[in-house]
UniProtKB/TrEMBL annotation:
InterPro entries: Cu-oxidase-like_N, Cu-oxidase_2nd, Cu-oxidase_C, Cu-oxidase_fam, Cu_oxidase_CS, Cu_oxidase_Cu_BS, Cupredoxin. Gene3D superfamilies: Cupredoxins - blue copper proteins. Pfam families: Cu-oxidase, Cu-oxidase_2, Cu-oxidase_3. Keywords: Copper, Metal-binding, Oxidoreductase. CDD domains: CuRO_1_CumA_like, CuRO_D2_2dMcoN_like. It comes from Paenibacillus phyllosphaerae. This is FtsP/CotA-like multicopper oxidase with cupredoxin domain.
Length: 488
């Protein structure tokens, strides 16, 4: 073959390859911005061109079951004391403590937004207003078990709240612990721009004793890592010998390795839920995945500071005096065999009504679950009262902290090995490449619930699906037609 002939064939091959890549890209991107999708029926009409195509999944689409609207599932009337808060979302320009100027979106002019602190059993009422965020905002209460209509997912449980509009959330703070809140409209954009905050539910009776407590939240604001809004970190006053509860929230997208130097400590809660008989740790580091919370109980030394430091260089300095000697040898904390089994919460001999395997991975341009993305992933459809086993496998593409809305699930095993320490109840499961976890979800909260990777960039690339209850419908729609794009 002549040189020209070879060049011609190579050129043709390159054109076909480029065409395929570009074609695949646009084919995948239509999923990110669908036209009109009902997340209860997952019957998508449209894609970008408005044609009817795709398949019908889920029970509600048969039209045989009586339909209960998510909108009608609200907090029960009651006499609980009401804790009312106003959150106003607005654009603003903020100067960080390193002098950097940032255009942010804030709740009540703050990022993180105001700390919401309530007591277990209270009725929480939050009036959300949007001043000037054109695409609309919502508030999702991360980790809270609440009625479907209050979950704050644009296009599933409500319309995004547009400028000049408002929405009132109401739920009972049933489970004490460390939580957070964030917008679930275009979440990968809006959380990074600053629409998030701490939510603490104080217990009526405390299993652990301590003299004081503090909360630190790690976030990524327009690419800059912050701890409680600071580029450096925080100084926390604490006296020698005191016991301090440190609540840590990872509201950023990547897993944070946290090191504690200068004190012994216990990890007393994960995702807000107390651990059973947690042992004392010394010279340990632990990983807090995106969306997760860890509560530490620290014993302040007789003299000197305690340093709690993240891999990204953010530091909480507790107490006063000299810093502890820097060290590099830390033991990695293992939560699957920490503490002791709780005789009151046995997990043996569970039988399941449904079992599903979810493979978290990636294709060419998307993050996927079982090879599919977004609303092309068939929803899990359950009935109230069912016991559901999920086998979650991380096939690659990074850490995938897997978050289920509206439920607290129990971790049963890691890589085939049953948990041997404290029972672990989570709303966000940290998974790393090659790991397999089994978790138990009790279907006890009828509604339409998102289940997605809490690296919100991964969610925005398709790692997001639904956990739906049979017979529950929604009047809301996801897509460019309504402008509700919860994962974008
Ligand atoms: Cu992920």
């Amino acid at each position: 073959m002549t040189w020209k002939g070879k060049a011609g064939i190579a050129g043709l091959a390159l054109t076909i390859l480029l065409g395929t890549v570009i074609g695949t890209y646009f084919w995948q991107m239509r999923l990110q911005k669908p036209f009109d999708v009902n997340m209860a029926a997952m019957h998508h009409t449209g894609g970008m061109n408005g044609h009817e195509h795709g398949t019908v999944h889920g029970a509600t689409s048969t039209g045989l079951q009586p339909s209960l609207s998510c909108e009608a599932i609200i907090a029960k009337a009651g006499e609980e004391p009401v804790h009312e808060i106003q959150l106003t979302a607005a654009q603003q320009v903020t100067k960080l403590d390193n002098g950097q100027i940032e255009e942010v979106w804030a709740f009540n002019s703050l990022t993180p937004g105001p700390e919401i602190r309530v007591t277990e059993g209270e009725r929480v009422r939050v009036v959300l207003k949007n001043t000037d965020i054109q695409e609309g905002v919502t508030v999702h209460w991360h980790g809270i078990v609440l009625p479907c209509s209050q979950d704050g997912v644009a296009g599933v449980t409500q319309e995004a709240v547009k400028p000049g509009e408002q929405f009132t959330y109401e739920f009972i703070a049933d489970h004490p612990g460390t939580y957070w809140y964030h917008s679930h409209q275009a979440s990968s954009v809006q959380v990074e721009k600053g629409l998030l905050g701490k939510l603490i539910i104080e217990p009526l009776t405390n299993r652990f004793e301590y003299d004081q407590e503090e909360t630190v939240l790690i976030q990524e604001l327009n690419g800059t890592m912050l701890m409680n809004g600071s580029t450096q970190g925080v100084d926390i006053q604490a006296s020698p010998g005191q016991t301090l509860r440190l609540r840590m929230i990872n509201a950023a997208n990547e897993t944070e390795m946290i090191r504690v130097n200068g004190a012994t400590f216990r990890i007393i809660a994960m995702d807000g839920h107390d651990l059973h008989e947690p042992e004392m740790l010394e010279h340990h580091q632990f990983q807090v995945a995106a969306g997760q919370r860890y509560d530490l109980l620290l014993q302040m030394p007789r003299q000197g500071k305690v340093i709690v430091e993240s891999e990204s260089g953010l530091k909480a300095a507790l107490g006063s005096g000299n810093d502890p000697e820097p060290r590099s040898d830390y033991t990695l904390f293992s939560w699957t065999d920490y503490g002791t089994p709780d005789p009151l919460a046995p997990v043996e001999n569970l039988t399941f009504d449904q079992s599903h395997t979810l493979e978290l991975g990636q294709n060419l341009f998307v993050k996927s679950i079982n090879g599919k993305s977004f609303h092309e992933i068939p929803p899990i459809v359950v009935k109230e009262g069912q016991r559901v086993k999920l086998t979650i496998i991380n096939e690659g593409g990074g850490d995938h902290p897997f978050h289920l809305h509206g439920h607290i699930f129990q971790v049963l095993s890691r890589n085939g090995q049953p948990l041997s320490g404290s029972p672990v109840f989570l709303d966000t499961l940290a998974t790393q490449e090659g790991e397999t976890y089994e978790v138990y979800v009790k279907a006890d909260n009828p509604g339409l619930w998102m289940m997605h990777c809490h690296n919100l960039m991964h969610a925005s690339m398709g790692m997001s699906m639904m956990f739906n209850y049979e017979g529950v419908s929604t009047p809301y729609r996801v897509g460019t037609k309504t402008g509700n794009l919860p994962d974008l």
